[in-house]
From TrEMBL, chain A:
Species assigned in the record: Streptomyces wuyuanensis
InterPro entries: ChsH2_Znr, NA-bd_OB-fold, Thioester_dehydratase-like
Domain ChsH2 rubredoxin-like zinc ribbon, first and last residues per copy: 18-53
Matching Pfam families: zf-ChsH2 (PF12172)
Protein name: Uncharacterized OB-fold protein, contains Zn-ribbon domain
UniProtKB/TrEMBL annotation, chain B:
Source organism phylogeny: Bacteria, Bacillati, Actinomycetota, Actinomycetes, Kitasatosporales
Family matches, as CDD domains: SCP-x_thiolase
Species of provenance: Streptomyces wuyuanensis
Identification of the protein by name: Acetyl-CoA acetyltransferase
Residue ranges occupied by any Thiolase C-terminal domain in the UniProt entry: 275-391
Gene3D superfamilies attached to this UniProt entry: 3.40.47.10
């Protein structure tokens, strides 16, 4: 059976299969240039800005590791995880994007552990699957070390 | 000086008692009233710090506590600011006293904590950052603590043994506190052999969730004099500031920081700005403090608070710890109560409990964990989404 691919949250990243084109999507204020991720569509949060048009903008594909950790215990709902299966620890990576001057959190691609990461190392954003149920594969973004890709 | 007097402090011991938060809060309130030597009927305002558990936010806490103590017509306020709820309750009481709206105010916070990780409120709520971080990332509170700890290791050279030593220090103090949940010494080896929860942090690096209750009876200075309170402990400052944009340190429950593209980051981070506001209002500086109670949700976070409170320079938290300055008997004891490491967090009670500890220390009645000659203390913490919380008390 083929599951339908659906983004776990709408409008936060590009859709389609290509790793190379995949990007996180934020918004940028037309008045003050502030960037927002998760996207801010109704108001600019810069206190010195009277508010401009918020336009969608793709974020940098690559960034550097700000920090990282691994969740060794199963998180509570609404994280989708079958309590009857053995818990597979996953790695979380906070990534500093130079152009946007911000840090974005995400899960690492499956298989990447804390041993594969270091603060300052280069990573890139790629599409991934967060969870699957009967007929849906919920898509998300993952961070992948650039070295592992070679 | 906009001082208010602390006439009474009371707590229900922290633990996992499995009873209603109302019982803990009421016990703490009765203890605080007895400590103050004031009858419940004399209290003209009650401020409750809400738990999010127990149906309506703590049955909307203020009224639930007032009802349990017996309706007597006092003004009521209920506040919620996650971990900062207690400080908001104290701030509300203080504002009422200074505005002349009430002379004696009872502040109560209590919680009955669930087992395991804190989880967001139920339902499908894709516009709530707290719901989203669990749904999209499985990012629990300890995951954020792990990120900060790893960042400190990379930036400042902190080690996992430094983190373990925070637990060792706080457990030693907590062993002397009858209100603490954990009252046994812990060794660095025990920390190092506890299971990893959120790399690099282990189970004993991360505070538990607890049941508990704490209460304060606050009054105007004029009332305290009439009441014959002698030289009462005074609350001299309460800081409840928000962050300044752009906030560039990833904080729970956020999935990303603000961008610093349009505006450069502020000179002070959020933690520093919380402390700065308290120091400025109190007219004191870090050198004037005899002790501090900070929110050690994790061992590594305690080191961050040393720096944010200006007890040492940026990046020097672990050095201050290694010197023994922050242990009982050190230059500036931090978490003489045993901290969250020994209590576990009872969310709406915790910031009130911090001020109870300052009160007993400043009175010189803290027993075996007494900080000699304590004259001024600060509490610090921050509540989810950007609620600053710090209290300065003096005597
Ligand atoms: Zn703007």
């Amino acid at each position: 059976m083929t599951r339908v691919r659906r983004p776990v949250v709408a409008g936060w990243f590009t859709e389609g299969d290509g790793d190379r084109e995949f990007r996180l999507l934020g918004t940028r204020c037309g008045a003050c240039t502030a960037v927002f991720f998760p996207r801010e569509d109704s108001f600019c949060r810069n206190p010195g800005c009277t508010g401009g048009e918020l336009a969608e903008v793709p974020l940098s594909k690559r960034g550097r590791v700000w920090s990282y950790t691994a969740g060794r215990y199963r998180p509570p709902a609404p994280y989708a995880s079958d309590p009857d299966t053995e818990w597979e620890p996953y790695t979380l990576v906070a990534v500093e994007l130079e152009a946007e001057r911000m840090v974005v959190l995400g899960q690492a691609v499956p298989g990447v552990t804390v041993e594969d990461l270091s603060v300052g190392a280069e990573v890139e954003v790629v599409p991934g699957i967060l969870s699957e149920d009967a007929d849906t594969a919920w898509t998300t973004w993952h961070w992948r070390p650039v070295e592992v890709d070679r | 000086m906009n001082d208010v007097a602390v006439l009474g402090a009371g707590m229900h011991p922290w633990g996992k008692w499995g009873r209603s938060f109302v019982e803990y809060g009421t016990a703490a309130a009765r203890a605080a009233l007895a400590d103050a030597g004031i009858g419940w009927q004399d209290v003209r305002s009650v401020v409750g710090a809400d738990t999010v558990r127990g149906g309506y936010p703590g049955y909307v806490a203020g009224a639930t506590f007032a009802r349990a103590l017996g309706w007597q017509g006092a003004r009521v306020t209920s506040v919620y600011a996650a971990c900062a709820s207690g400080a908001q309750a104290i701030d509300t009481a203080r504002a009422q006293i200074l505005a002349g709206m009430a002379e004696v105010v009872l502040v109560v916070g209590a919680d009955s904590a669930p087992k395991g990780f804190f989880a967001p409120a139920g339902g499908d709520r894709p516009d709530d950052p707290d719901w989203l971080r669990f749904r999209l990332l499985g990012a629990t509170n300890p995951a954020y603590f792990g990120l900060y700890a790893r960042r400190r290791m990379a930036l400042h050279g902190d080690t996992t043994d430094d983190f373990a030593q925070v637990k060792v220090k706080n457990a030693a103090a907590g062993a002397l506190n009858p209100y603490a949940r954990y009252r046994t010494a812990v060794s660095a080896r025990q920390v190092a052999s506890s299971p990893v929860v959120a790399d690099p942090l282990r189970l004993l690096d991360i505070c538990a969730t607890s049941d508990g209750g704490a209460a304060l009876v606050l009054s105007s200075m004029a009332y305290a004099r009439r009441h014959g309170a002698g030289v009462p402990v005074r609350i001299r400052a309460v800081s409840t500031v928000t962050p300044t944009y752009p906030r560039t340190v990833l904080d729970l429950p956020d999935i990303a920081t603000d961008s610093a593209v349009a505006v450069d980051p502020p000179a002070l981070g959020f933690g520093e700005s919380i402390a700065r506001a308290a120091y400025e209002e109190a007219g004191l500086g870090p050198d004037d403090l005899s002790l501090a109670e900070v929110y050690d949700l994790s061992t590594a976070l305690e080191l961050q608070w040393y720096e944010d409170l200006g007890l040492c320079g940026p990046g020097e938290g672990a050095k201050l710890l290694r010197e023994g300055a922050t242990a009982l008997g050190g230059r500036i004891p931090v978490n003489a109560s045993g901290g969250l490491a020994s209590f576990g967090e009872a969310v709406p009670a915790q910031a009130v409990a911090q001020v109870c500890e300052l009160t007993w220390q400043l009175r010189g009645t803290a027993g075996e964990r007494q900080v000699a000659g304590a004259r001024a203390g600060m509490t610090a913490n921050q509540g989810l989404f950007g609620h600053g919380s710090a209290v300065v008390a003096v005597r």
